[in-house]
Amino acid sequence: MSDALSEAIPVLLVAAPILAATLPLVFGLRFDRAGWLFTTLTTSSLFVATVVLATVVYSEGTVIHQLGGYPRAYGIELVADRLSTTIALLVTGTSAGVLAYTRLGGPRGNTFYSGYLLLVGGLLGLTFTGDVFNMFVFLEITGLATYALIASGDGPESAVAGLKYLIVGTVGASLYLLGVGLLFMATGTLNMIELAEAIPQAQGGYENTLVRAAFAFVFVGFAIKVAQWPVHAWQPDAYQHAPDGVTPLVAALVSTVSAYALARVMYTVFTVDFLTQTPYAREIVITVGAVSVVAGSTLAVIQRDVKRMLAYSSVSQFGLVVAAYGLVTETALVGAVIHLVGHGIMKAGLFIAAGVIALGYGARTVDEYAGLAARRPVVAGGMAVLLIALIGIPPSVGFVGKWYIALGAVQAEVWSVAAVIFLSTMLTLAYSARLLEKMYFTPANWLEDPHAPDADVVATDGGSGPGLTRQSDRARPDAVSIGMLSIVVVAAVLAVALGFSGDLFYDWLEPFVSEVFN
Amino acid sequence: MVENAVTDPRPLAAVLVSAIAVVLIIASYRFPNVREGWSVVAALTKFGIVLSMLPGVLDGTVYEWSLAESTGLEFVAGIDFVLRADPLGMLFALLASFLWIFTSFYAAGYMRGLDEHAQTRFFAAFAASLSTALGIAFAGNLVTIFVFYELLSLVTYPLVAHNEDSEARIAGRKYLTYTFFGGGVFLLAGTVLVYWLTAGVGEGTLTFEAGGMSALAEAAQAEPVFAQAAFFLLIAGFGVKAAVMPLHSWLADAMVAPTPVSGLLHAVAVVKSGAFGVARVILEVYGVETIRELPLNVPMVGEVGLNVPVAILAAFTLTAASIIAMRKDHLKRRLAYSTTAQLSYIVLGLSMLHPIAVFGALFHIPAHAFGKLTLFFCAGAVHVETHTDYVSEMAGIGKRMPLVMSAFAVGAAGMAGIPLIAGFVSKFYMMIGAGSLGGSYWLFALALVVSGILNIAYLWPVVYTAFFETEDRHDAKPILEFPLGGQRESYAAEQTGDDSLATDGGAPQPAGGGEDEDDEREDEHEYAVDRYPSDHETHDKHADDHHDHGDHDDHHHHGGPPPGGWERRSPLFGESTWLMLMPILVIATGAVTLGVVPDYAIFLELAAYIVETATGEVVP
Amino acid sequence: MIEYLDTHYTYVLAFVLLAIGLYMMIANENLVKKVIGVNLFQTAIFLFFVSVAYVEGGDAPIVPAETNPGELLVASPLPHVIVLTAIVVGVALTAVALALIVRIYAEYGTLREDTLREVRADE
């Protein structure tokens, strides 16, 4: 493939979805249902283009595109290296897959699909950009699209959740912007690669107060976007009240790409030297991550709503990733990236499964999941496999990520983190097993039992058994399509199959990681 | 003997056979006969595959299959996914796959006899457990064994929680917590530490080597503290499944599972995978030499060997568990504590590090398996036929089930280490091992003797009450809880009232347990449970619903002899279905064979071979 | 210290504004005022950017050089461009936020967060 063509792919990947976002609106004037088709076509061609890009990156190394041909001193670059291409594959693949649910599961309407494409464009921009200010713009585009999509739910709750996310998310992005401003003050450049060279040359080098303050602002900003404890509060509301078709996309991608961006800034801009030489930088990052692991899973255990429980689980899983960033070892970084990808796939599958169950079985709380396995074997089986993969039981992608992160923690000889990582298995087990037990080993009619422990379920419904009737009123079994089920199954199969790809991932990411660490 | 490794897909095939069977079992859920047929076919094929490798293994060949060689990809960077049939693995694989054949017959008889729900899930999970157990046996490095160890915990969970009532759910929760704490936390941590340690002195490795990993021995010199920490983490990880105190309490609770599960899994495959893991760690990860060279510095005591804390825990467990067992009235729970004690024999024998003791411990793996499986199968047969679970209700049951209770007596003698039964041989060697070590190791020999006596004390009363006591005149049990010299009791007094009232607390229930057995007496060849499977089922359900949070013992108390006492049945016909009797007899015969002519049973030869490769010393 | 304040008073102002915006966002119960707080917060950052853009001894890139370089304060164009972009982003955010508030008002009939909490708790 010619260089010019392969260099054009990153631009296409960013520009095409944003431009295409207008099309559903335009065609919507004539055709009611054009949105889904357009979005499917766009996202699947994006996926194909990303695969092509990945092969180019594999054979020829990093692809850099300078927008408008301006040099990086004042121009903007799009960089497709092994790390960003991995994330781009996840973004395009997941966004194409989730459409299998939204076709019949909703939300419908062409405006929704415009927002969908805008979100994909923003995420891809965030992935490929090589410029820290440009990253802010894409962070905000992603944010805007997400706020709108979350608020597109039917209930009024979704608007409140959307606004909450908007206010908190904007603060996060603004703090990041402030950090960028301080970096610019210290160095006079915004390009990531130039920054990496300029920061050590700034007055005082890594001890420059501006640089340190910039790191602090950038980290806190991303901590909000990634939903780390204690600034995670927006996330459970947003995931719970977003429409079932939106949550998989948001949960699998938005925080993931933000976490990727954090890695990009930490490792490409500030570099390993800064992290190791700055006192307490690593310790703070590690502590935030480790506390999030514990707090997130503890909160997950006490949730009644399944989507909310999975949202807190994300807090915990991203805690693992952030803690791995703070370890600053090659193995841990590889593990963090694998866990990002794996978590994205597993969470997308889990939220789609939760959507299918809400649609076809009317169950939204953990208690309502009782007896699900007997009535909806396929989706329950898919969900069970994904939950087990999330716990990190091998062979699964969850285990591969955890293995590398744990090995990294031991290599770094940070024993407290190593302990948290090993214990995270138990923490994840605590909430996953709760759901598994309800689905497989609790008879469906236990709610009708007057002596059931969950007395208030009965009390609120007033009378015997209406809990079930109300649940089945909500259910529309015929609304569940083969496409929805197959995407859950695909996610489950991927989660297991990628469990054998630990070596493949390592080889693929190794050149990037060793470059970062030298 | 020289080891030569041969690439061969048979280890993988042995693991996959029952994994494929899982699919077939689920696919044929509509046809119970076909479904159980798959179990049997898979069991036979599996045993055949394992057996076909035996001659080669005894000649020093190691059959190996690895992911990297087949696909060019390692499992995770630096660590391959290896299945290899070496002598130690063969010992466990041969045992598990052989016993599965008979257990699959027995399970069919048991599950049908009780008309259990979710039988497809049961048989599928059972086959999957065997698949993972073989995976543990053939695992060639610590990561591979970890993979199967975790999977084993996972696939046995549905079996423990099988009953779907709150008791089973709580037992299942406890089971998952304990086993994943052992596997996912301790074992994984130990594995990562070992990898890191070996990477510190060269290429990181986790591959088992007979006599200990040489890289680890080198690393232990440089980082003795971490090497010790890793040792205890690994032992704790496997110790959970081996039910070493204080990590034992899941095992007794797991007895809510159907009896074939308690028998094959919670007396053989699952718990032995723990003991087997301990053997791997001691013999092939650290090696006897390395463990000796890593003394622990204990304040007040001075330097003690790394193995001593493990041995002390095991000795404590085998004594304490035996004492607890004496107080248990529920037969399966009593057997569970007996299992806890017997597994600690194995751990104790291994941790004494003396070749002869290790030899005895390894031989105790099959010896205990045969004996305990007999006991569980008998307990299950009694449950299916008479719904009797409590020892205190079994007075005179020898009349009703002569053959089963005789087999029980054989198994019990084996547990106690009475000569001519398998348990004697292994205990004999362990005592010799402890004796030849001298020093304060005589304490461990003493523990073995004491525990042997305790074994008799808790298993003999069962045999005694079955054959030598009658319904009208028997001692109150458990004996420990009543005045010395016993207290006379009779079932007749309890049964004067309306017995349906006693069983399910006033709920209208026309057909009480007693009438079931009245029907039974009229027909020799067909049993009430077969003819009216729903009878006891509704009975159970009812109890579940109403006593969900009450004393769960309530609804078990519909066992015991029917009014008028046990009827007398011939040992040849009509005692139970042959689907259950045949496996009991075969396994009991196996236990005797291992005890009378151990030289001809292949296990002794394998054990000797393992000890020779691991320690370099030839044992008798 | 005084001297620093004298030369860098714009920084101080920017961060005072930032704090006011943050306080409004957290403490004010009215949703619209919260959004105003967000705007204030962002604007403070924009001001900060503009005020750091002055280059001592700078020189305009296109217009021919001054006779006395450094006499006139010259600003770097890059931060201005950035602020322009950021303002556009901020406007879009405000639009989305107000749209959401309109919807919340239509559903619940209130703009106060405490009332909103009560209404939602009752449901």
- Main sheet: strands, sense, barrel of chain A: 2 strands, antiparallel
Please, what is the oligomeric state? heterotrimer
Number of E-state strands of chain A: 2
Strand content of chain C: under 5%
Average of pLDDT of chain A: 86
Strand content of chain A: under 5%
- Discrete helix count of chain A: 23
Question: How many beta-strand segments of chain C?
Answer: 2
In percent, how helical is the residue content of chain A?
Answer: over 70%
Pfam families (chain C): Oxidored_q2 (PF00420)
InterPro entries (chain C): CPA3_antiporter_subunitC (IPR050601), NUOK/Mnh_C1-like (IPR039428)
Protein name (chain C): Cation:proton antiporter subunit C
Subcellular location (chain C): Membrane
Features:
heterotrimer; B: 620 residues; mainly alpha; three-stranded mixed sheet; two-stranded antiparallel sheet; 7 strands; C: 123 residues; transmembrane helix (chain C); NUOK/Mnh_C1-like (chain C); Cation:proton antiporter subunit C (chain C); CPA3_antiporter_subunitC (chain C); membrane (chain C)
Explain the overall architecture.
The complex is a heterotrimer of chains A (518), B (620) and C (123). By secondary structure, chain A is mostly helical. Helix content of chain A is 76%, strand content 2%. Chain B has 620 residues and is mainly alpha-helical. Chain B has one domain (4-466, 580-615). Chain B is 68% helix and 4% strand. The two termini of chain B are 16 Å apart. The model of chain B is unreliable at 495-557 (pLDDT under 50). With 123 residues, chain C is mainly alpha-helical. Helices cover 72% and strands 3% of the residues of chain C. Chain C is built from 5 helices and 2 strands; from the N terminus they run αααββαα. Chain C has helices at 2-7, 9-27, 31-52, 77-108, 113-122, and strands at residues 54-55, 74-75. A two-stranded antiparallel sheet of chain C has the order 1-2. The model of chain C has no long low-confidence stretch (mean pLDDT 83). The chains are: A mainly alpha (518), B mainly alpha (620), C mainly alpha (123). Chains in contact: A-B, A-C. Chains A and C meet through helix 6 and helix 7 of A and helix 3 and helix 4 of C. Chain C: The chain crosses the membrane at residues 12-28, 35-55, 81-102. Chain C: Its main location: membrane. Chain C: One of its GO terms (cellular component) is membrane. Chain C: This is Cation:proton antiporter subunit C. Chain C: It comes from Natronoglomus mannanivorans.
